[in-house]
Amino acid sequence: SREEDADRAADSSAIAWAVGAGAAFGILFILLAQTGDDAGWWPLVGSRIAATFASSGSGAMESAGRSSAE
Question: What confidence tens digit (pLDDT) does each residue in 31-44 have?
């Protein structure tokens, strides 16, 4: 039925987001381990800025997708 298909799509989407988030955290930690001790807080500042832009972009895409689906 349509409801079951929608549930499967939602589950697949949630799993994809979870895997993507885990991969992103892993990459972040690997890259932070590669920085030198003299880098200070700048690697974390850069990652915060990138995360802010990424989350605002994905939120905008999601809200645009919701409005077009209605």
Answer: 899 999 899 999 98
